[in-house]
Structure to design on (193 residues):
C-alpha cells in the first residue's frame, strides 16, 4: 500500500546542508521579467530548488527576498537557490546567450511553438514575464524561440508560476534525455576502440 512520506523520511534521503551547497546543478536558468506577485516569485524559486536550476535572475521592477510572502510560498528555497537581482533583464539574457545558453521565452506569440515540440540542445534559460503584460518585446526579440502552453478554453493566459512548473519540468526531462544520449554515445565510442 502506498503512503505519503513523512518530512523526516524525505529529509533522510537528501544531502546534508554542507554538501548541498556544492551539488552539481542542472543547466536551467530562469529570468523573471518584472514579476509583481511575491507568491509567484516564491513558487518559482521553490520549483528551481526542486529541479536544481543553475540560477534564477529576478529582474526589473519586482520584489526580491527577503520578503515574507516570497518566503511563505518558497518554503525557504530562496536560501538554497542561487539567485541574483538585476535591474535589466535584457542585459542578463544577452550575457547568457553569448555564453551559449539558449534563450526561451515562455509566452504566446505569433510564432511560438507548443512547449512539447521544443527540444533543447544544451543549457536553457526560460524567460517568464510579468503577470499582466507577459514577456517584454525586448526579451522576445532576443529569444531564440518562444514556447507556449496550449490554451484550449476561454481564458487567454495561465498563471506564470503554473506555466513555469510545466515548462521547467519539461525542459528538465528533455535535458536528462540529452545527458543519457551523450553518455550512451560516449560508451559506444569507447567500446568501438
Amino acid at each position: 500500500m502506498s503512503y505519503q512520506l513523512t518530512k523526516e523520511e524525505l529529509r533522510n534521503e537528501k544531502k546534508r546542508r554542507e554538501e548541498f551547497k556544492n551539488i552539481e546543478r542542472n543547466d536551467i536558468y530562469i529570468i523573471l521579467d518584472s514579476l509583481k506577485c511575491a507568491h509567484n516569485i516564491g513558487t518559482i524559486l521553490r520549483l528551481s530548488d526542486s529541479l536544481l536550476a543553475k540560477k534564477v535572475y529576478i529582474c526589473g521592477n519586482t520584489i526580491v527576498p527577503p520578503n515574507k510572502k516570497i518566503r511563505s510560498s518558497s518554503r525557504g528555497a530562496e536560501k538554497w537557490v542561487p539567485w541574483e537581482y538585476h535591474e535589466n533583464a535584457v542585459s542578463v539574457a544577452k550575457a547568457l546567450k553569448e555564453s551559449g545558453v539558449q534563450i526561451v521565452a515562455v509566452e504566446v506569440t505569433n510564432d511560438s511553438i507548443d512547449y512539447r515540440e521544443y527540444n533543447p540542445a544544451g543549457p536553457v534559460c526560460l524567460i517568464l514575464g510579468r503577470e499582466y503584460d507577459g514577456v517584454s518585446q525586448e526579451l522576445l526579440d532576443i529569444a531564440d524561440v518562444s514556447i507556449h502552453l496550449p490554451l484550449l478554453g476561454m481564458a487567454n493566459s495561465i498563471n506564470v508560476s503554473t506555466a513555469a512548473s510545466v515548462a521547467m519540468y519539461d525542459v528538465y526531462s528533455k535535458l536528462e534525455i540529452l545527458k543519457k544520449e551523450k553518455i550512451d554515445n560516449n560508451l559506444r565510442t569507447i567500446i568501438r576502440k
Remarks:
- DSSP finds seven helices and seven strands in the chain.
